[in-house]
Write a structure and sequence with these properties.
By secondary structure, this protein is of the alpha/beta class. The protein is built from 14 helices and 48 strands.
Length: 797
């Protein structure tokens, strides 16, 4: 009953990202890189690339082609303690790796895709505590058992051994945390030693899916078993989970050799398909459901061949279809299947199979508690009654009841004549089911005085309202319009501070208010002196429902205080950009407040943009959100077009639009991944921003759609028209400079408000868009010195 979908976007982007299968806490620990107050020095020595600190070094990349490799224990007397993120990713030449005893951490996807890797020599002698996300995923030839592993492992992240088909056993004596899909498709994994001693409380989703676990499995500390956790473990005979009180759907499905299981006495729900086709369960001929169970899900015990009786406790109030189904002689008989729970739930029922004719012999006669399903046997009409026949799904007894006549449904409405401001119109209301109809007068519409005005007397100021006279937009009449007040200063719509950094905090406060005042679980921090990293991060922020905060040296105190006071203690902070953008000093101050802080950076703004797009897509998959409808490609040399796109919630890939003649291989792989998902590719801006040669190169993968106007202000409106068909309001920022608008994208996405660029005399196209969408309010990013009231009123009149 399992449905497994892995996004092609994630698989296609493995050149830059982490493993495709992600646990729920995928990036809160990242690659477990130790925080340090100093800056790492990247050093290449032979075929090895290191990040070197004063007391330890991280093996960052291996550029050689050796089949049998020995990892150095040190670099110039500095011990190598960590294998970095994707260090040996998809190295198909590698067959064995010898580990020094100094290694303590294996980073995310470090050996992922090393399809010929067979042996980890001396791995047992290390003190490794952490195996990152997808660390050994798809190492199909890795032939190891528990004697080859250190006993010090405390964390195994999601998909760490996914599809390691020759892994035979592992030592988890000190394990504290196990990720989703950790041992999925490990078909030779017969034993996991040390579960009796470890402190793991949850076996998460698909952790042992289709693995080779066999015999007795004892997990005394486990309290929760996730969806599909042991799906297809055909060789397990006994499971001892005395504290497991919560089970996920299909958790033991297709465990065909499972004879017995021990669960917590406090378990209340047996979910859908929990023991589906566990045909050896109840090998003694019967099975007793725990006494506190109140609900048995759909097909929970379907196909359990050994049952001749089952005890249903008195607290059970709901039993799903075929929940207690039994298979005999190669076929399923619905009446036989359901008969077993057609009796009072407080009484034990014993039934024995007699022969192949489908007959059952009950030990005693017990009155049936009917479960009726209704079927309409005579359809009602507008004026005549119908008939509903109810049949017990267990004993086939039936009865009928009347269905009331439907009555006429006069939902088919035709306009015969239109009303005017002063005259009635006529509508014909016809029944959608028969020929009955009647006419209805439509009252005059009356004058519409909204939006048509002539100012008189005074203009509005921040302290006083102005006045204007209203005219009917339909007929031009002014009777009844009179003098009305107006103001352009809408309460709580202008978000600003004394600097770009405080403006970012003001926008974050408004986003928090839109989230019901809840503390943030994720926060993004970017350099406030440049635009590229913050605009690339708008997609990640929208996926994570996180604010973007700006920092600079000497401008970080208020931001760090904000993070401390407005995020949960376990919140993750993503610092976007390298150390030249956000300094190590600021990074470590943030790390001191929130330990789950990670830097996402490339060699330049374009590589950083690639990494952020991939990280956002990975998080979208983890959180079961859309990865977007379109990939937006924008020039990284100028802020305007990417800023306009930042409220769309779509991934933004920055390219060198002026100098570039072709995409890099990494950029092209991202475009191809989105094309493979049948998603669109959008170019933001004209050929002066992203040149025609780049467009032609993009078209070799996927024909793009270009959204452009005569200038940045028209382009801003084109983007809004394409992505926001029914906006709630607008987000307005200056098109002359980037700082105040950088943080507004996530708020615009959250509140369905496109980001419109403005400047003096540049609001005509935006005004036409606002009128067409009936947008009368806006978030205004920045003070009046940045976006004046006159600029706003030129758009919203």
């Amino acid at each position: 009953m399992k449905k497994k979908i892995i996004s092609a976007v994630i698989a296609g982007c493995m050149l830059l990202g982490s493993a495709a299968c992600l646990p729920q806490n995928a990036f809160t620990t990242g690659t477990a890189i130790t925080a340090t107050a100093e800056t790492a020095t990247e050093i290449t020595s032979g075929n090895f690339v290191y990040d070197v600190y004063s007391t330890y070094a991280v093996l960052k990349k291996y550029n050689g082609s050796a089949a049998n490799l020995k990892i150095p224990a040190s670099y110039q007397s500095i011990p190598v303690t960590q294998i970095g993120f994707q260090c040996f990713y998809q190295n198909t030449k590698l067959e064995s790796v010898t580990f020094p005893s100094t290694i303590t951490n294996i980073g995310g996807a470090a050996f992922s895709g090393c399809s010929n890797l067979k042996e980890l020599v001396d791995f047992r002698n290390t003190k490794v505590t952490y195996l990152g996300l997808g660390a050994f995923a798809n190492c199909k030839m890795l032939d190891m058992d528990y004697n080859d592993f250190p006993s010090t492992i405390q964390t195994i992240e999601g998909s760490a051994f996914n599809n390691c088909a020759k892994l035979r056993s592992i030592d988890v004596s000190n394990l504290r945390s196990l990720g989703t899909y950790a041992f999925e498709d490990c078909t030779s994994l017969t034993a996991v030693y040390g579960f009796q001693n470890c402190s793991v409380k949850e076996i998460p989703e698909e952790a042992f899916y289709n693995s080779g676990l066999r015999g007795n499995v004892v997990m005394p500390s486990v309290e929760k078993v996730g969806k599909n956790a042991f799906y297809g473990c055909e060789s397990i005979t006994n499971l001892h989970l005395p504290k497991a009180a919560v089970l996920g759907e299909s958790c033991f499905e297709e465990c065909t050799s499972l004879k017995s299981i021990t669960l917590s006495e406090d378990i209340a729900v047996l979910p859908n398909f929990a023991f589906y086709n566990c045909k050896s369960l109840g090998a003694d001929g019967g099975f007793s459901i725990p006494a506190k169970v109140t609900k048995i899900g759909e097909k929970c015990f379907y196909g359990c061949l050994n049952f001749t009786y089952i005890v249903v406790p008195s607290l059970v109030k709901e039993i799903g279809s075929y929940a207690l189904g039994i298979k005999k002689n190669g076929g399923y008989n619905q009446r036989i299947v359901n008969t077993i729970y057609c009796y009072p739930q407080s009484q034990q029922v014993t039934e024995k199979y007699v022969d192949d004719t489908g007959l059952w012999q009950k030990a005693e006669t017990i009155t049936c508690v009917h479960t009726y399903n209704g079927v309409i046997t005579t359809q009602p009409t507008c004026t005549k009654k119908g008939v509903m026949t109810y049949t017990c799904s267990k004993c086939m007894l039936s009865y009928t009841s009347d269905i009331a006549a439907l009555g006429h449904d006069y939902s088919k409405i035709t306009r015969i004549s239109e009303p005017t401001c002063t005259k009635k119109g006529v509508e014909k209301h016809a029944c959608s089911r028969c020929s009955a109809s009647y006419n209805v007068d439509i009252e005059p519409t009356g004058h519409n005085f909204k939006g048509v005005k002539r100012k008189v007397v005074t203009y509005s100021t921040p302290a006083h309202e102005g006045q204007y006279k209203l005219y009917c937009s339909e007929c031009g009449g002014s009777e009844g319009g009179g003098i009305q007040n107006y103001t352009t200063n809408k309460t709580n719509s202008r978000l600003f501070g004394t600097s770009r950094y405080e403006t970012g905090i003001a926008v974050a406060d408004q986003l928090k208010a839109e989230n019901g005042g809840k503390a943030f679980e994720k926060i993004i921090v970017c350099d406030g002196r440049g635009f590229a990293d913050a605009l690339s991060a708008s997609y990640l922020a929208s996926v994570l429902d996180a604010p973007i905060l700006l920092v600079a040296n000497g401008k970080d105190t208020a931001v760090i205080d904000y993070i401390k006071n407005n995020s949960t203690k376990g919140a993750a902070v993503y610092v976007i950009g390298g150390e030249a953008a956000v300094s190590p000093d600021i990074y470590n101050k943030i790390k001191a407040v929130r330990s789950s802080t990670e830097r996402v950076a490339g060699a330049n703004r374009y590589e950083t943009s690639q990494k952020v797009v991939i990280l956002g897509a990975m998080w979208a998959q983890v959180l079961n959100k859309s990865i977007g409808t379109d990939l937006i490609i924008a020039d990284g040399n100028n802020f305007a077009d990417a800023l306009s796109a930042s409220a769309t919630g779509q991934p933004i890939l920055l390219v060198n639009g002026k100098a570039g003649k072709a995409l890099t291989e990494e950029q092209k792989s991202i475009v191809k991944a989105y094309a493979d998902e049948k998603l669109g590719v959008i170019i933001a801006g004209g050929t002066g921003a992203v040149n025609a040669a780049l467009e032609a190169d993009i078209a070799t993968v996927k024909k793009p759609t270009r959204l452009a106007g005569d200038n940045r202000y028209q382009t801003s409106v084109r983007i809004a028209e394409y992505f926001f068909k029914s906006p709630a309001a607008l987000t307005i920022a200056t098109g002359a400079a980037f700082p105040d608008g950088l943080c507004g994208g996530p708020l615009g996405r959250k509140t369905n408000c496109p980001l419109i660029l403005t400047a003096k005399t540049k609001g005509a196209d935006a005004n036409a868009y606002a009128k067409s969408k009936k947008a009368t309010t806006a978030w205004i990013l920045g003070g009046t010195a940045v976006v004046s009231d006159a600029d706003v009123s030129e758009i919203i009149k």
